[in-house]
Every structure is written in structure tokens, then in C-alpha cells.
Amino acid sequence: MVWLFNCLVPATIDKSNIKDLSPVVIAGQSQTLDCVVQGVPSPKIVWFRNGSRLTLDDNQHIRVTQGGRYLEITMATVNDTAVYQCRVANEAGRDDVAYALNVHGVYCFISCFTYLFCFTCTCICAAC
Fold first, then answer.
1. Which of 26, 58, 82, 107 is most exposed by smallest CB count within 10 Å?
2. Is position 109 within any domain?
3. Interatomic CA distance for residues 15 and 103, integer angstroms
4. How far apart are CA 67 and CA 34, in angstroms?
């Protein structure tokens, strides 16, 4: 007699390698968000932005790699500031992780001084 067992393992996200759930980047930099999953059968991975399913057709600088395990944002802009959520699920269960990504812009202020017919300008750049 042969017994066959169908072993199910709930979908889970490995959060042990996640260092920061609220990453901050400067505009123009890149950020990768992790969603490394485990489970049997293999979990389905879906990414959300501010609660709405992320559509990558419109965002050429945002892409999902390695079957959804990573969300890569290249050349981030202030408009990329959002809560990004990875949700995984299979027949045995589901899990999720949320990142509050904050992209700071770079602003330049020009201060000019006049000294005895001499005109001097200085550009001071800061991330805000």
C-alpha cells in the first residue's frame, strides 16, 4: 500500500534580512525592496503601492525582478514616495510586508553678495 501526502507550507516572507521598513533615499538614487518568500506550493507574489495593485506598465523606472522577490526603483523621484506592500499567498496561508519609502528632493539655493563692485554667487545644495 502506498500513501501519498500533500504537504502544504504556508506562504511566509523572510523578514530576517530586511534592515529598514522606512527607507529614505535622495532623488536620483535607487532603492530595492525585498520580498523573499517561502512556502509549498510556491507562493504568488503581488506588489501594491498605497493600497493599489502596482502596475508596472506606466512606471519604467520601477520593475519587479526574480519572480517578484525584489522591487527595484531606479532614479527615484519625490513622486515615488509611498507605502509599498508585498503580499504573498498560497493554499496554506498568506503574509505581507510594507515599506514606507520616502524620497527626498534636492533643492539648490543661490545666495549672492555684492562687495565693492564685485558680484559673487554661491550655490548651496541640500537634501530636504
1. 58
2. yes
3. 23
4. 12
Query: How many independent structural domains does the chain possess?
Result: 1
Identify the CATH number of the domain in which residue 119 sits. Answer: 2.60.40.10
**Residue 41 domain-assigned (yes or no):** yes
| Residue 18, in any domain of the structure | yes
Closest among 69, 52, 72, 50 to 61, alpha carbons compared: 72
Residue 4 lies in a domain: no
Nearest residue to 32 via CA among 85, 82, 78, 70: 70
Domain range holding 52? Answer: 9-127
| Residue type at 58 in one-letter notation | D
Cβ-based neighbour number of residue 95 at 10 Å: 20
Give the span between the Cα atoms of 76 and 25, in whole angstroms.
Answer: 8
User: Quick check: pTM over 0.85?
Assistant: no
